[in-house]
Amino acid sequence: MKVMAFVRWHGYGRPAGRLAGGALLMGLVWAFGIMLAACAAMCAWVVLAAWPVYEFGAFLTAGSVAGAVLGGAACARAAGRFGLLHGFITGLLFGLFLEALLFAGSPGSFTAAGLALRAAFLGVAGAAGGLAGVNLASRRPSFYAGRRYGK
């Protein structure tokens, strides 16, 4: 039976470690890649559609949430520990960058509370992806593989 790890605070005989910066960068690359793919799909839809297309709000939201979830999962899988924390930070950084782009494009149309709420929502979505990503089977053998505890 596989044990699901939410947060592992100690390293069982080794130092707990810190946040993995390379994993955070990889998660952000995944998040922006998913968002870019969603934007490319929407662009293709506009170009290939035979009718006018006006409303993209739901598709942009779905693309950004999918980017945060999959970016958090990729980050936590690469880090192998602190899945909730790595995923939350990846989603939050992704959300803050998107909100900075929105605010730079039209500073008068957004409130600070609305922007913070959107960034926090993407952080929680990234944390959910991080929870799933840290529990995925890794390609590399784990430090704990084959080790029996309690002996």
What can be said about this structure in brief?
This protein is mostly helical and 151 residues long.
Could you explain the architecture of this structure?
This protein is mainly α. The chain has one domain. The chain has 4 helices and no strands. Mean pLDDT is 81; it is low at 144-151.
In what range is the share of β-strand residues? under 5%
Helix-strand category: mainly alpha
Number of strands: 0
Would you identify the regions where 5 or more consecutive residues have pLDDT less than 50? 144-151
Distance between the termini: 20 Å
Give the rounded overall mean pLDDT: 81
Radius of gyration: 18 Å
Overall form? globular
Q: Mind sketching the topology for me?
A:
Blueprint: H1 21-48, H2 57-79, H3 83-105, H4 112-134
Helix pairs in contact: 1-2, 1-3, 2-3, 2-4, 3-4
List its traits.
single chain
